[in-house]
Amino acid sequence: MALKIVKGSIDRMFDKNLQDLVRGIRNHKEDEAKYISTCIDEIKQELKQDNIAVKANAVCKLTYLQMLGYDVSWAAFNIVEVMSSSKFTYKRIGYLAASQCFHESTDVIMLTTNQIRKDLSSPNQYDTGVALTGLSCFVTPDLARDLANDIMTLMSHTKPYIRKKAVLIMYKVFLKYPESLRPAFPRLKEKLEDPDPGVQSAAVNVICELARRNPKNYLSLAPLFFKLMTSSTNNWVLIKIIKLFGALTPLEPRLGKKLIEPLTNLIHSTSAMSLLYECVNTVIAVLISLSSGMPNHSASIQLCVQKLRILIEDSDQNLKYLGLLAMSKILKTHPKSVQSHKDLILQCLDDKDESIRLRALDLLYGMVSKKNLMEIVKKLMLHVDKAEGTTYRDELLTKIIDICSQSNYQYITNFEWYISILVELTRLEGTRHGHLIASQMLDVAIRVKAIRVFAVAQMATLLDNAHLLTGNTQRNGICEVLYAAAWICGEFSEHLENPTQTLEAMLRPKVATLPGHIQAVYVQNAAKLFATVLKGEEGNTDSTAAQEASQLMIDRLPLFVQSANLEVQERASCILQLVKYIQKLQQKDVEVAEEVNALFAGELNPVAPKAQKKVPVPEGLDLDAWINEPPSESESEDEQPKAIFAKEEPKHSRPRHTEVDEKELARRREARKQEQANNPFYIKASPSSQKVYQEAPGVEHIPVVQIDLNVPLKVPGLPMSDQYVKMEEERRQKERAEKKKKEKKKRKEKRSGRGKKHDSAPESEEDITPAHMVDIVTEEMPENALPSDDDERDPTDPHKALDIDLDKPLADSEKLPVRSHRAAEAQKSPTDGETENATLPEPKKKSSKEKREKKKDKERDRKKSKDEKKKKKHKHEDKEEDLLGGQADEPVLQSEETSQVAEPPASSSTTAEVSDLDFWLSNAPVPSNTQEAATVVAAAAAPAASVTAPNSEPDEPKDTEMEEMKSSKHKKKKQKKEKEEKEKKKKKKHHHHHHHGDGAGDESVQNGTVEEEEPLPPMSNYCLLAENSYIKMMMEDADEVYDIQGNLQDGSQVVVSVIFENKCSSFLKSMEFNVLDSLNSKLQRPEGSGPHDGLVVPFQLPPGVSNEARFVFTVQSIVMPQKLKGTLTFIVKNEDDSTHEKLDFKLHFTCTSYLITTPCYSDAFAKLLESGDLKSSSVRLEGVNMPFHHLLARICFHHHFSVVERIDSCASMYSRSIQGHHVCLLVKTSAQTVSIDAKCDEPTLLGNVLDEIKQTFSQC
Amino acid sequence: MIKAILIFNNHGKPRLSKFYEHYNEDTEQQIIRETFHLVSKRDENVCNFLEGGLLIGGSDYKLIYRHYATLYFVFCVDSSESELGILDLIQVFVETLDKCFENVCELDLIFHVDKVHHILAEMVMGGMVLETNMNEIITQVDAQNKMEKSEVSASLKICYLDQIQ
């Protein structure tokens, strides 16, 4: 032994440590990869050694290599080994490695549960600390569930160092195991007032993270946080709290009212910029949440803006950045107060820092007016030219377009200028936003009629110079512009000066290199152009021009006919045939122009976004009505029609128009028009400008936006946008002069032309361009559509599961501060439950009901999958289970919902809680209008029994139904004890662990069953020892076996962990644990005590709490399983009296419990088998259907074996007893049969172990 | 929440990487490269915040970094963290390193990345700020190092005694 250690440490001296590895890598710069691969080989060798120091060193090196990007997951098991070292030095290395490379799908994680639990309860605080730190990085749902209770206990540890870590890690536990939130929350809340500032800060941290995602559940904590805010001096805590308030205020404007004053004080008093900034931010949030227009708030806004200005003017770029960021928040609600700092923001546009420029760009959006738009855009265009990175340039481009197009081009006075800006933007290299420019071109050309002549000329030039855009492959994005150009030239070809030339440009062979969809547009619009050319040549006596055009088409189109793009091909061949036909007619001197033009007659109008949605449902069409009468016998099942009638619900599939005659149609159309006319959100088209497609009924009712611009400004050629700035100036001056004369007249014109007058900035006076389209933005929202946050949330967001009503457990706290599923037993008699329900005369408040409904929905989603699994699982379970599981999902869900709904104390005290908050909030003088904006909480506080009537009706039958379900559940619970034990034996798995933190009672069974389907099922050796109505004892299957080396002659020691759980509502104390010793096994008692004295359990149990104690036994012979009888005595202390109680139990030491997981290498293993000292035995297991790795994991876990080698479906395993017996297994599986050949130097032990293995698998 | 903490030098060589969300090794390397690319091209006197790259983050996340001599310290955080607070935290981190290593330089981080991890573990845990008080951090780190030393010397003593026997 000693020699081994010496040898080990000598070996170590020659090993490479981390520093050597790093040095080596640095010395092998040329062949780094090769060097590292040799290092990895060395590491693999080191990992095979027994010496833990060598292993730890190897793992440490692996951690470094992981950082360099090498996958080290193959060493996961070795990492676990190092983690379980008793020495802190190695343990820390192990946990660090685990935190760097373990994740949810690392399968060895499930082996760590007990190790971590042991470390968590280690007397050394740093062992605990290191375990907590590691766990925070790789916690899985299984670990979270199994360890939640241990961590919760640590939250009350005596050392603040542990407390703060335990508090912080709870957040991760909540994320992975949402059920733990409710039971743990009271204690978490307690920690908000922990004497240690670090713990307090951690608790604030966790609650802030929780509240950020689901703020409404944490509103009731507002008074507590308010107190903290006014009392704390820790800036870090203050920042977190203030940030939290920022998230809460939108839900409760009155809270905002209360906050303003202390926040303002902080703003004035604090010297910490970070705190100041967060205060300003939250004040902004408050101001946004409050209804505007309150006189005394302008002061707050002024204060904020003023402080932000100081930040922006600061030389520190960070403050500048943050100032701009906060400014943009104010901009949304109080644009005017930001506009006064325009100078500053424009200045920031020239900042050398890109982040700051980007923030300033965001603000620009609110800065523009008709007066300065051109100037600002000009400045931006300069930036575009100077910009280096494409990202920044693209950002600029989108911003320019955003700014110009906002509010339906509200600020553009001269569209020719805008078109030329767009054309200039096409010269940008490598932009991704070609399509954006294109859509703007199309939009403007379509909406602004007066600009078409100009736009067409510009587009024709673009088409002519298409090679400039397409020349470089890098400019791919920009060729989208040609799409717009071609379409505009085609559609408005009557405005073209020289259509033939453009036609020629569109049919150049080079076009074939463009993307398919653009070619398609080219071909189609070439046809339009062709029609225009024909029309132009009509009446000319000389028809050569027309014939030349036909010839051009016939010559060039075949190129497109060969296109690989179907759309292009189809259009081209169609048009080619058409032109050929036309050519024939031309040769016969037939006039064709009119007919060809008729192909493209009519005008295309822009359709408002969402217009389709807004098409009103015709009168008399009820989309919810049955098309066919439902079969009468199924009427009662209307509530759950989905599954049954899914195929019979083609509600929308029927064509509506077929049955309606023309007259009816006309009538409806009239009605619709009437309705639209009265709808302020509808865009009204001026009837004169609109052509109607008669052949498509209903099309004309789609809202159409049109802007008519009647300022003809002839600018020949292709002018630069800059020119327009100048021209615009002149024009405005001129007009200002004219205006004085014509003022009256013009106003009239405006009114009659538009019917609307814009009311913005003072400069609108001098503005004459009638380009106003107000309300267009609001129009785009469908009626009655409210933005719902829930829709936007990612369904995979883990925080969704944390949307849990936290007020409820608080209410239940009189009964059970920590809820566990055993608690449900308290009301296990069905009569109890029913009377409770009976005395519950609609206690539901409207909003709490809504909340619950929402929650139900969410839970439903979550549970459905669970239930489905459950169903499958329960097929083989007893009949009663089958009844439940066999029904449709719905009843199962409902029964769970009832248990929620039927919690009278909960809902009533929620109200109490809520009204507390209400009271606290209403302490501040509340202005009348905020009161009107009835908040969720206020609504909840108001008695709303009548409100629920219409809503709850459909629910009520369900409720009673559910109650029945529930009572049947209760009955079931009566038999719980036996059943539980049965279950426990049946699945020697660890469902019982749910008591660690299961909020809803009924769920535990489910959870347990669901687990079986998961890739690697969680396992635990805890089994029920004994239970009565006061206490429950769970024994860990004596799996932690301490082997005191060198002490073997004295017999071995076995440590038994027992979890005591208080199930009643009284305090349990003076617990004494006693066991009747047998000859072979003895409980180790402290020196001086007699052989029959009990051991005092070193803790007391408040209601609902559980804790773990360990007892050491001395065992002589380990070849046979042992049973020991024992008794636990304790005092149940109620408020007025206390009684003495006892509980008998039997401790069962299996032979397995004498085995220690000992890793073994294949060579050593082979030698062992060869030695011939071992007796062999074998066993066959039938009907085991689980994946092989599960099987191995089970043997490893339950029977303390380690896998030596695994080849396909065959594995060798090894374990060693505490007295040094070797046990070797060869496990083979084929189909559902598993054969285990075993060898051991002690046949009795082997026989017993095999029996136990057999039992394990017969139970699953 | 802090999503990741990266330290790399002026050439983008990683000196420490701590991801509080799982990525595979390749993605981690890509993130480090991308972050280096984003950060390294920024001038010295510009602000210390930038919007996250494509791989890490998204709109809610920010990169907050500081540049010290040859090293970049980059924190990727979401909007629940105070920007200026994190900047202070980086400062605390570096000052702590300076105390623990006595005039810290890049070489210390190169050869003792494990120690840097241990120090960081006392400041940030699972992506949440654990402790911001430098003295407290140093006390805990020192106590753990002392434990480690005592274990090492104990095992050496055993070796020594064994050899004597």
TrEMBL record, chain B:
GO terms for cellular component: AP-3 adaptor complex; cytoplasmic vesicle membrane; Golgi apparatus. Keywords: Cytoplasmic vesicle, Golgi apparatus, Membrane, Protein transport, Transport. SUPFAM superfamilies: SNARE-like. Pfam families: Clat_adaptor_s (PF01217). Residues 1-147 form the AP complex mu/sigma subunit domain. The keyword Protein transport applies. It is found in: Cytoplasmic vesicle membrane; Golgi apparatus. GO terms for biological process: Golgi to vacuole transport; intracellular protein transport. InterPro entries: AP_complex_ssu, AP_mu_sigma_su, APS3, Clathrin_sm-chain_CS, Longin-like_dom_sf. PROSITE patterns: CLAT_ADAPTOR_S (PS00989). It is a peripheral membrane protein. It comes from the Eukaryota. Belongs to the adaptor complexes small subunit family. Part of the AP-3 complex, an adaptor-related complex which is not clathrin-associated. The complex is associated with the Golgi region as well as more peripheral structures. It facilitates the budding of vesicles from the Golgi membrane and may be directly involved in trafficking to lysosomes. In concert with the BLOC-1 complex, AP-3 is required to target cargos into vesicles assembled at cell bodies for delivery into neurites and nerve terminals. This is AP complex subunit sigma.
